[in-house]
Amino acid sequence: MQLRYATNLAVDQYIDSKAWKDAKLAHCPLHPKGGCKFAKHGTYPRKYPDGVKIARWYCPDGCATFSMLPDCLSSRLPGTLVEVEDVINQMESSPSQEAAAENIRLDIGLPGALRWMRRRLFLIRITLMLLIDLVTSLGDCQPTVSSFRSVLGTEFVLPQLRMFVSPYLDILPPPLGFGPRPEVKKLKKNHFQHQTGTDPP
Ligand SMILES: [Zn+2]
User: Fold this and answer.
1) What is the whole-number distance in angstroms between the Cα of residue 197 and the centre of ligand 1?
2) How far is ligand 1, taken at its centre, from the CA of residue 62, in Å?
3) Residues 58, 1: Cα–Cα separation, whole Å
4) What is the DSSP string of 112-143?
5) What percent of the chain has pLDDT over 90?
6) What is the overall mean pLDDT for the chain?
7) How far is the centre of ligand 1, averaged over its atoms, from the C-alpha of 98 (Å)?
8) Which of 1, 57, 104, 200 sits most deeply, having the most CB atoms within 10 A of its CB?
9) What is the pLDDT of residues 171-180, one digit of tens each?
10) What is the pLDDT of residues 24-72, one digit of tens each?
11) Cα-to-centroid distance, 14 and ligand 1 (Å)
């Protein structure tokens, strides 16, 4: 289970200061009254960025591990929230997704780059749409990074939102939230494809 490690450190500061050592989890999230063998369970490294570690706890009674993800990092995607936001921002401000891909991913071919970008765009759009419904003060936003930037008056909205909407993180999809990934195929089928069968009269 991923939990929020509330810290305003940028990822470089998090690595340099080994801030995972300062992460604290006072009690077992499954057994808040205690009585279980909940204990610190070391750290685990992330492949990217190099040097990042995440503090971890374990409850043997609940057979569950708990990791404290700092506010700068994406959940279930490599890298930081700022990096994800950069991608979405470039997609929003480019004349086409293909044009954005030429600036964002030079290391892979266009189809792979588009898949990589669209996966991020899909997750962030769903997240922003959910937040517009859930949070009254965001009700006038459009589901774009640029709209959220202007309403929140901040340079990078995703790290701000990790703090600002923390009560909803369990139901929001990654990379902002800690909830499940929305199912792309099901959504596409429901919303973008005609149903099979005979035409209606
Ligand atoms: Zn426990």
Assistant:
1) 51
2) 6
3) 10
4) HHHHHHHHHHHHHHHHHHHHHHH-GGGTT--S
5) 84
6) 91
7) 48
8) 57
9) 999 999 999 9
10) 999 999 999 999 999 999 999 998 899 999 999 999 999 999 999 999 9
11) 28
pTM score = 0.87
**Distance of alpha carbon 163 from alpha carbon 169, whole angstroms:** 9
Q: Residue 21's pLDDT is what? A: 97
Contact 83, 117 (CB under 8 A): no
Nearest by Cα to 46 from 89, 2, 88, 107: 2
Burial class, 124, CB count within 10 angstroms (exposed 0-12 / middle 13-18 / buried 19+) = buried
Name the stretches of the chain with pLDDT < 70: 184-201
Q: Give me ligand 1 centre to Cα 106, in Å.
A: 46
- Ligand 1 centroid–CA 34 distance in Å is 7
Distance from Cα 22 to the centre of ligand 1, integer Å: 21
Distance 172 CA to ligand 1 centre (A): 24
Residues 6+ positions from 68 with CB-CB distance below 8 Å: 3, 4, 5, 20, 23, 25, 54, 55, 56
Q: How far is the CA of 32 from the centre of ligand 1 (A)?
A: 7
Report how far ligand 1's centroid is from the alpha carbon of 28 (Å): 5
CA of 182 to the centre of ligand 1 (A): 28
Q: How far is the CA of 3 from the centre of ligand 1 (A)?
A: 15
Contact 3, 29 (CB under 8 A): yes
Query: Tokens 């922003």, residue?
Result: 128
